[in-house]
């Protein structure tokens, strides 16, 4: 009986059960968004999600998006999204795939609108707070604000000169709202950018390599290390006495 309880299948089922119950706590606790990342992102739990409960990726993705500090596990999680984007569809995970995997910003804009509906109708994410006869969903506002930030950061790494009207549209804002949002963000962040109000453009300084340049540099470095390793193996083989 004990052996049956501790079988690999039962262990996976127990982890899935724990993760489902933990949702009641994580999205109702001040530090829950950090704790859900720490738990769900452990290899055993993440494997259980990918194999048996992919719908839980929605909650891990949401936690990454609304977390105030970008977690070091985020890049690894994007790889998980990339691996599973054909087998599991969810507006929130698809939003991350659009921004960080496919660089499809029009798609990200559409997914952001779908994400709003998902949050409002999700029993864990759509918690409402009643204030002065008004009902609000705080997580929805945080999600949309950070989702815009994700789009802005990635879009600015890919493009050097950006039309404010185009970027505002991709952020689901009108021109005035978008201009105000972009100006405030640049002022409060470390982005090396200039705003040309007459031309209505944002100009990124060229000393920031874009995504494609970073990919090329990474590929070159990988090729260099591979070439060096092959040479070392050849030298070692040549140094061996003939048998």
UniProtKB/TrEMBL annotation:
Residues 25-209 form the PCI domain. The keyword Ribosomal protein does not apply. Keywords: Cytoplasm, Initiation factor, Protein biosynthesis. PROSITE patterns: PCI. Transmembrane segments: none annotated. SMART domains: PINT (SM00088). GO terms for cellular component: eukaryotic translation initiation factor 3 complex. GO terms for molecular function: translation initiation factor activity. It comes from the Eukaryota. The keyword Cytoplasm applies. This is Eukaryotic translation initiation factor 3 subunit E. It comes from Hibiscus syriacus. The lineage of its organism: Eukaryota, Viridiplantae, Streptophyta, Embryophyta, Tracheophyta.
């Amino acid at each position: 009986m004990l052996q049956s309880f501790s079988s690999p299948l039962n262990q996976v089922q127990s982890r899935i059960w724990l993760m489902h119950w933990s949702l009641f706590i994580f999205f109702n606790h001040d530090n829950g968004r950090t704790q859900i990342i720490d738990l769900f992102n452990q290899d055993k739990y993440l494997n259980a999600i990918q194999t048996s409960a992919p719908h839980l990726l929605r909650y891990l993705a949401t936690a990454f998006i609304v977390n105030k500090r970008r977690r070091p596990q985020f890049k690894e999680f994007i790889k998980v999204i990339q691996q599973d984007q054909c087998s599991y569809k969810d507006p929130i995970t698809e939003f991350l795939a659009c921004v960080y995997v496919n660089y499809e910003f029009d798609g990200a804009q559409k997914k952001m609108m779908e994400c709003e509906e998902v949050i409002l109708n999700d029993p864990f994410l759509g918690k409402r707070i009643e204030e002065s006869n008004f009902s609000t969903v705080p997580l929805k506002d945080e999600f949309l604000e950070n989702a815009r930030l994700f789009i802005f950061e990635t879009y600015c790494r890919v493009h050097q000169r950006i039309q404010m009207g185009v970027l505002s549209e991709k952020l689901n804002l009108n021109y005035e709202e978008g201009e105000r949002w972009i100006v405030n963000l640049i002022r409060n962040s470390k982005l090396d950018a200039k705003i040309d109000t007459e031309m209505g453009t944002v100009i990124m300084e060229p000393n920031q390599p874009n995504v494609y340049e970073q990919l090329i540099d990474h590929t070159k470095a990988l090729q260099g290390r591979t070439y060096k390793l092959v040479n070392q193996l050849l030298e070692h083989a040549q140094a061996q006495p003939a048998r």
